[in-house]
Amino acid sequence: MTQTKFTGLGIALITPFNEDESIDFNALGNLLDYQLQNGIDYLVVLGTTAETPTLSEEEKKSVIQFVLNKVNGKVPIVLGCGGNNTRGIVEKLKNDDFTGIDAILSVVPYYNKPSQEGIYQHFKAISEASKVPVILYNIPGRTGVNMLPDTTIRLAREFENIIAIKEACGNMDQINDIIKRKPKDFIVISGDDGITYPLITMGAQGVISVIGNAFPKEFGRMVRLSLQGDYESARVIHQKFTDLFDLLFVDGNPAGAKCMLSLMGYIQNKLRLPLVPTRMVTYEKIREVLKGLNVKC
Questions:
Q1: Catalytic residue positions?
Q2: pLDDT digit string, tens, across residues 155-165
């Protein structure tokens, strides 16, 4: 079944930059090798963590093609494809080439602050236009509007190609309500590394992860142990990373992830405005945590 492709550990892939802010494809290739060698389940390309709003259309196409060529079918690829102009997204879905893409991840419209009916109609239009399965993405801290469980369940029941939701609302009761009421085959995916462990114990089926960029093997093991019901072993790994969870986001995402990956030697600590690197105090805290995890940096 299509849905089983998107259980376990998905990686919200970063976009490495050179010092001149061009895309560092060499670093991206090395990072993809690292992910594939360490057992990730799927990749999410051109999501929020990829700094997608700062990439040109040509750069986006280059990143997609590079990832597809490098991965070569080894794991499923989810493509970020969302926004607050429904008509524009629908045209993109109808006209772009989605060869090699296994699903799209589409965020609740931001800034416009649509009603629940507006959100429903937005995703209805996307579902009807999409050639591939759709994963909803609810992150009210970024969009300014919360897609409520009734809307999520309505979409999940009415459209067969809406197969999952990445939930990052931060409200455990809201996510639990979706888990309780969802159709059997509809997947709930954690959108927050820090609560992935408890969410899986409640019935979520994995995570689209930021910390997995740096720790795919260890974080993936935690996810798989949780899914297998070995909660005690999973909890031990979860608690190893609790200090990092907050540090990675205190100065914004992906500033924390890029700081961590640069300390580990994978990329340069470079972002595009309006994002900037972490403060030095955060940088040093991340370095100390990594040392405590026996990471050379």
A1: 137, 166
A2: 999 999 999 99
